[in-house]
Amino acid sequence: MFDVGQQEVVKPVLLFLTDKYAAPGAFKEGRWTKANSASAAAADLKDWWGTIITGDVPWDCADDSMMADWLIDMKMSLSEKTSDFLNSSTINRRSSNVAEFYRWALGRKLVERVPEPDAAKRLANMRLTNPNIAKSYRNRSRSKYDQDPHPISPEVAVKLAAELGPLPSEGKTQSSRTRLVFELGYETGMRIDEILNLHHLWFSEFEFDPNRPFVMSSFDIEITKGLVKREINVPAWLMEELRLYVVGERIAAIEQGGKSWLKGDRKAFTQLFLNHAGATHNAGKPTQPSTIQDEFHTACLTLKIHRRKIRAKGTPQESAIYVPKHTFHDTRHSFAVLLFRSLEKRGRVRPWIRVQKALGHAQVSTTTGIYLNVIDHLGAEALEMVAETFHGLRHAWRGDAAVAN
């Protein structure tokens, strides 16, 4: 298995699969007897690794709570093969393979604990039936795996946005999907999985007033981390771009899907973002987080927004490579910092309370513990410059009508 962002093989997974499926006796009469099981385990661990990457969580810090979130995601996901919900046997197999991997890692002292499928299942069921019951569990181990935030500066955000694709209003032939996902992350602080679970009907009939491009449209999203409903606010200019995507690129993707998998009794998916028409047999199916992450990483490397990393340290294959400086999750960090500064400039008391609500953190200590160091490090003067630059660049994106406002 290969981690695109870090440009390297995921060694623990490779060693685990080798130990389990390539041991003596795995080959008989010139045939690999465990090929199907190995492929299934690799696919299950790949899906789990995608969850880890999406949340910016080190793999060795996973716990029951994180596995519970994964179980909930799977229960709410549709299979690309059947266009139906995953059955319980598939979910159980996936969680069992992940747990077995962690037991293997525990035996080699690579981790300190093993996520238990049964405990995770009970917690997932608790959250699905009554999310309030599980509040005390939600951030219990959060401090153990939260990473230092890496806000994307407005100057870099402009470059990344352009590299990820055009806006629908620009009338170009390239796909706008990943650009719009990025814009939503940067403008609202939503996690990538929250963005990819948005319903297209929220945007299909939006009426745009070009003289008021910054009026906010509010929505309550429910498919969130911990299933805690929260409000998001999307500016009018972005609502209009999303509407253009729905009536243009999205419809084209569904029409292309009708030539392959979308036939008979099958119905089109309701998610806002779908694989574009150029995705051949997968056109019109829901976009996966790994697809957005891969395109975001590629954009970072293309623009040389990267850092050097030593690969295979201490071995004959040791070499220096470049890896992306940011992950998609950094759009959430950026939103938090810029929202805080804008509230502070308006004289709001305790602006972190508002940031906490916007991010959906159960405890304000989670918000301040993750982001406050960035504020202290940058200082008020630097933050003011960032905010002013952000304001100016955003206006420049939106044309003369926006500047007038």
Essential attributes:
about 400 residues, mainly alpha, DNA polymerase, domain 1, 3 domains, two-stranded antiparallel ribbon, about 10% strand, disordered C terminus
Number of helical stretches of at least 4 residues: 16
In terms of structural class, how would the helical and strand content be classed?
Answer: mainly alpha
Order of helices and strands: EEHEEHHHHHHHHHHEEHHEEHHH
**Rg:** 22 Å
The order of strands across the largest sheet is 1-2
Helicity level: 40-55%
Tell me the distance between the termini: 50 Å
Number of structurally distinct domains: 3
Quick check: average pLDDT? 78
Main sheet, how many strands, which sense, barrel? 2 strands, antiparallel
Quaternary state of the chains = single chain
Unreliable spans? 1-7, 133-147, 397-405
Would you count the extended β strands for me? 8
Which descriptor suits the 3D outline?
Answer: globular
Strand content: 5-15%
